[in-house]
Amino acid sequence: xxxxxxxxxxxxxxxxxxxxxxxxxxxxxxxxxxxxxxxxxxxxxxxxxxxxxxxxxxxxxxxxxxxxxxxxxxxxxxxxxxxxxxxxxxxxxxxxxxxxxxxxxxxxxxxxxxxxxxxxxxxxxxxxxxxxxxxxxxxxxxxxxxxxxxxxxxxxxxxxxxxxxxxxxxxxxxxxxxxxxxxxxxxxxxxxxxxxxxxxxxxxxxxxxxxxxxxxxxxxxxxxxxxxxxxxxxxxxxxxxxxxxxxxxxxxxxxxxxxxxxxxxxxxxxxxxxxxxxxxxxxxxxxxxxxxxxxxxxxxxxxxxxxxxxxxxxxxxxxxxxxxxxxxxxxxxxxxxxxxxxxxxxxxxxxxxxxxxxxxxxxxxxxxxxxxxxxxxxxxxxxxxxxxxxxxxxxxxxxxxxxxxxxxxxxxxxxxxxxxxxxxxxxxxxxxxxxxxxxxxxxxxxxxxxxxxxxxxxxxxxxxxxxxxxxxxxxxxxxxxxxxxxxxxxxxxxxxxxxxxxxxxxxxxxxxxxxxxxxxxxxxxxxxxxxxxxxxxxxxxxxxxxxxxxxxxxxxxxxxxxxxxxxxxxxxxxxxxxxxxxxxxxxxxxxxxxxxxxxxxxxxxxxxx
Length: 609
Ligand code: AGP
Hints:
- The strands form 5 sheets. The chain has an 8-stranded antiparallel β-sheet, covered by helices on one side. It has a 6-stranded antiparallel β-sheet with strand order 5-6-7-8-12-13.
- Helix content is 35%, strand content 22%.
- By secondary structure, it is of the alpha/beta class.
- The radius of gyration is 26 Å and the shape is globular.
- The protein starts with a strand and ends in a 17-residue tail after the last helix.
- It binds 2-deoxy-2-amino glucitol-6-phosphate.
- 2-deoxy-2-amino glucitol-6-phosphate is lined by residues 301-304, 348-350, 353, 356, 400-402, 489, 605-606.
């Protein structure tokens, strides 16, 4: 998704902007650009493709300035080409970069065209630049013109603006898209993501919706939309530079898969004591809020949604609470019936997913019960909008394909289940057994990671495939869904997941000797039933790749590869079985030569609807 970086300093900011853009690359983008002020002139460089293309342009004709804004663009309105890349200018005296979507841009564009403005891009962003210029022409000063333009915009934005009319000031505003001020010594920075600021400062201010900021080298002013000053608290970002380096690994995704034992240890830290999950881990007033709930409503997108689907099995069977799980983009428009006794659980790696944020807002508007965010980014919009928070301490996840965020979400949801179940009569003995299983997770995940080499070999059989079916039953059906999502996301192989019992109701028609069928088949109550479903595939010549505890699964099948996982404790088995599926998709993508960390068309944090 789009990224913003800006700086006003006593030194040349161009290297800072480029470094920031590189640190934003993981969000996904298709073009980039930067603008600076040189004397009384705006200067700009833009390029389609990787940041290295922009750097190459800067090598030919370098820019240097003490103020600048830069952007990585992920196309929403208009193709990925240079004309649509940000920054956008108006009459060479306004430069803007923007994340978000301006919903009334067509109307604004029409009016501006009638007023004589010529557009050089298809973007919604360009209207902002011209709108500001229009207000300047009406006699307003730059700040007032900026405010007046924001007032006309419907939609979401994080905007940064510079102008030679006030060459020492960088203006910015936030509504619905994250924006952070970085505080240096005699310099200020601006970014849509703390990761972009890592090399310049750890001192940050998270702007709130409706905030307008003016940054000068030695001064910062934050106001609301009416121009009244507002106070925002300074935080110290905990992001470490080395946490976002790839180190010895070939890809971030690979690093993040192998970091999972540590991510689990970090997520567990301080949350378990004497064999019990601490309720206070969910927030100081968690006990009071949990005591009133009679249902759970989980809302999330993508991989996070799959984590929610797993949790439903745990919550209903152990905590005996009715649990509904819904995709955020559907929930927000469905007009659901509010349940004031339902705990709303939102799941998100980034905490900035627009659909999840909007769905949470909708639950508040409708009158659902208290909200709990399970999230990986502290101070994210989701965290700030929720009554209770449980942070997954997975560390920064850079690969677009979510891995360690998913397994730490599952762990967090299992801890939530235990806390809710205890309130509804779960015995200390059962809790102890679950906690023992939870504590064995790092060791068991390490064991799964040793399957890496055999899975790498297995992946060769997928290189020429165009389709794949993933099967699971019960709590492992969402794990099959997650496996399919990972494969399609990074290897571009079309993959679908089905509950295995559903095969005969349609998808079996797809099975022939060219169709790989991947099954998640742990040793649980449903294993025998799953085996019969796999026989249906076998009888149609399908190629079976089965992840199972034991190779005895092979018996009675013609074409079958069994990847032995060994015995796995049933309660944590969805977490454990995720690992080999992540490895499979990673190795298939490697063979196919795709961009593993930044797959085409995708973004890390989906901050637009
Ligand atoms: C997963 O691999 C995807 N990148 C995607 O489905 C992601 O999980 C989804 O966009 C939700 O993101 P969030 O967890 O940051 O809210």
